[in-house]
């Protein structure tokens, strides 16, 4: 009789452990799904903020005649003829201020390691073939000689860039009037 009670108790214990194992695995699967959804949402937000940063920089470049000329000179692999405001070169560098990161030669826009997951970030971390990458808004953190540590919405960690590739968002305004060719005035 005593052996039967021990066997029954042991069987109940095994059943209880099996039920707990199933519940634990179901719970861990739900937690995994929840974490995955949260991570995907986080990456989508980062992609959106990165695209917005690139779009804002492009709008700033295209709306300023001098920045646009400098950008197109880089696309044509020529030297720009305009002297632009560049922090640390001809203007004072200020920390926690937004600047435009604009390359004049083929390069990767963000470092390859570390970077966020996703096709956009993978593309931005690869060097471009023949033309410079699109400009992006970055925030300057600290001056390191002829380089600057910057933070971007496109990268999870700060990275360093050359002062030659950093431009003030607000450039001087050209007030020379446009005169059509062969005008008499």
Describe, in plain words, how this protein is organized in 3D:
Helices cover 43% and strands 14% of the residues. It has a five-stranded antiparallel sheet with strand order 4-3-2-1-5. It has helices spanning 2-63, 65-75, 119-124, and strands spanning 98-101, 136-144, 147-152, 159-162, 166-167. Strand 2 and strand 3 form a beta hairpin. It has a domain at 48-167. The chain is rod-shaped. The chain is α+β, with helices and mostly antiparallel strands. Helix 1 (2-63) crosses helix 2 (65-75). It is built from three helices and five strands. The model has no long low-confidence stretch (mean pLDDT 86).
Question: TL;DR of this structure?
Answer:
By secondary structure, the chain is of the alpha+beta class. It has three helices and five strands; from the N terminus they run H-H-E-H-E-E-E-E.
Count of beta strands = 5
Morphology? rod-shaped
> Strand order of the main beta sheet, please?
4-3-2-1-5
Q: In whole angstroms, how far apart are the ends?
A: 120 Å
**Given the helix and strand composition, which structural class is it?**
alpha+beta
What count of helical segments does DSSP give? 3
Low-pLDDT windows of residues? none
Gyration radius from CA atoms, angstroms: 28 Å
Biggest sheet overview: 5 strands, antiparallel
Helix content: 40-55%
Mean pLDDT: 86
- Helices and strands, in order, run as HHEHEEEE
Quaternary state of this entry equals single chain
Strand content: 5-15%
